[in-house]
Amino acid sequence: MWPFDAVDWLTLLAPFAYLFVLVSSLYVFTNVYRSRKAAQAASLEPWFPPHLQRNIYLSLLEQEDPKVPDSFLKAALLRRATEDIHRIVQIRNAKGALQVLLQRGSVGDDLWQRFQRAEKEIEEELRDVVNEANAFAPNWGQTIFQSASEMAQNTQIRDRLTDILATSESEKSWWDARKAAIQSSFMKELDEEKKSPLTADTVLVERGGPAEKGGKKKKKGKA
């Protein structure tokens, strides 16, 4: 009976050994693939430039001697949230167009990975800002982005008005130069007419002279 039992055990162990080798291979392959993808994603260029407002806030927060007043920290945190609003708007505006281009094959996976990483970073940034705001005042995290949105809109309106005023000034300068050129051309034409020997009176006299002589001759003939 012993040889038959050994054969049965070997027959049962063979599939388990095959499954163990297969699962181990898949596990190793998955870990290596994820490590490569993580390294590739880390080497990609960030979607946004460095967050200057966040860095300023963290620098002020870590300063101990002298300690920065809370009013300054709150203002720096609000400016940080305002910059986050600008980035959220850019993310929302770019996502739809980027998805369409990705489906058409017009952009590569690298650009999509950069965008996805930017989405995750902005989500973490929003949570961090909310936590920091609640640390200063209870429930401030629920309203800080509303205030930041109003500040962003005011800044956009102010920039737009500045552009309009700059455009109107340039248009005014253009019209002034145009009017000066038209006036100069008109005065030049008047000067040329004054210098010309053939005036309107001369033309009338020359045109009327022969007719008058002919009329007098006809009268003499009748007499």
From TrEMBL:
Q: Does the keyword Nucleotide-binding apply?
A: no
Q: Methyltransferase: present as a keyword of the record?
A: no
Q: Which GO terms describe its biological process?
A: post-translational protein targeting to membrane, translocation
What is a single cellular component term in the Gene Ontology annotation? Sec62/Sec63 complex
Q: What is this protein called?
A: Translocation protein-like protein sec66
**Residue span of region Disordered:** 190-223
Could you list the residue ranges that cross the membrane? Answer: 6-29
Q: Which InterPro entries match?
A: Sec66
Q: Where is the signal peptide?
A: none
Originating species? Pleomassaria siparia CBS 279.74
Q: Which UniProt keywords apply?
A: Membrane, Transmembrane, Transmembrane helix
Pfam families from the xrefs? Sec66 (PF09802)
